[in-house]
């Protein structure tokens, strides 16, 4: 999917957004929360029979409907190119909430053995050319910004969520440094500079939880590899996300009023 020319500038302002009509407002019963991400969020996780994604559990923690549109193996780039961001935008109505969390599949370089998922290195208007397809590839920040604009133009609010960490106790010692995509989500939020777009540092929330749980408990949450968690690990990731929202870890978000009480404290 090519970007329209109007999207080819990484601006700081969102520009004009369409406002819901009275008919739109009357037609909806209430907001819906959409969750967009990769296998760490997707139902059944890595589809290996022993892992699950945290999007499977988030609906139990909210008072509004939660629609999990996460797909395994996707990055911000491939989710865009497959038209999945646009597909969700076709459903979104004013007042809805869209959570965007990618990062696990976005690394590498499209210039060398492009896998169709890697974003162009950088956090601005840098572009690369895929050595496989010849397509112009944009940065992670750029893809996230364009996606967020699709939803705010419909009157929805957007939460940019940083990726969950890999097993931070895998080596036996604590390794808590975040990937660069955690910072990239912050940069996307800052570039959008809109009250309709907020940030939740999910990586930080899960990291605090993992420090509290300790090595043995965390290792038990990863049955196959260092990325995909067991159903229990996915449930804990969902709980950490909700705790971060409830306690305004990164400021107030549009989901805060829809958190089911009491909130389970996991970190």
From TrEMBL:
Signal peptide segment: 1-18
GO molecular function, one term: hydrolase activity
Record keywords, A-Z: Hydrolase, Signal
Domain of life: Eukaryota
Domain (SGNH hydrolase-type esterase) ranges: 35-235
UniProt entry tagged with the keyword Signal: yes
UniProt key word Signal: yes
Family per similarity comment: Belongs to the 'GDSL' lipolytic enzyme family.
Record-given protein name: Rhamnogalacturonan acetylesterase
Source organism of this protein record: Stachybotrys elegans
């Amino acid at each position: 999917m090519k970007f329209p020319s109007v999207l080819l500038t990484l601006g700081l302002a969102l520009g004009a957004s369409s406002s819901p009509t009275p008919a739109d407002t009357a037609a909806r019963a209430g907001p819906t929360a959409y969750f967009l991400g990769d296998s760490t969020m997707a139902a059944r996780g890595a589809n290996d029979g022993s892992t699950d994604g945290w999007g499977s559990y988030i609906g139990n923690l909210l008072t509004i409907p939660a629609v999990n549109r996460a797909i395994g193996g996707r990055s911000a780039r491939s989710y865009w190119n497959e038209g999945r961001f646009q597909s969700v935008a076709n459903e979104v109505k004013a007042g809805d909430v869209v959570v965007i969390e990618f990062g696990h599949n976005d690394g590498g370089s499209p210039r060398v053995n492009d896998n169709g998922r890697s974003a162009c290195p950088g956090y601005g208007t840098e572009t690369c050319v895929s050595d496989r397809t010849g397509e112009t590839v944009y940065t992670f920040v750029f893809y996230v910004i364009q996606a967020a604009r699709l939803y705010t133009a419909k009157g929805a609010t957007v939460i940019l969520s940083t990726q969950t960490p890999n097993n931070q106790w895998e080596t036996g010692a604590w390794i808590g440094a975040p990937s660069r995509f955690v910072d990239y989500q912050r940069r996307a939020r800052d570039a959008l500079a809109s009250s309709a777009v907020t940030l939740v540092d999910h990586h930080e929330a899960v990291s605090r939880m993992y420090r509290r749980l300790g090595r043995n408990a965390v290792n038990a949450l990863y049955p196959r590899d260092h990325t995909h968690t067991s159903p229990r690990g996915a449930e804990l990731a969902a709980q950490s996300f909700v705790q971060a929202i409830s306690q305004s870890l990164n400021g107030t978000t549009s989901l805060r009023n829809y958190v089911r009480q009491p909130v389970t404290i996991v970190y």
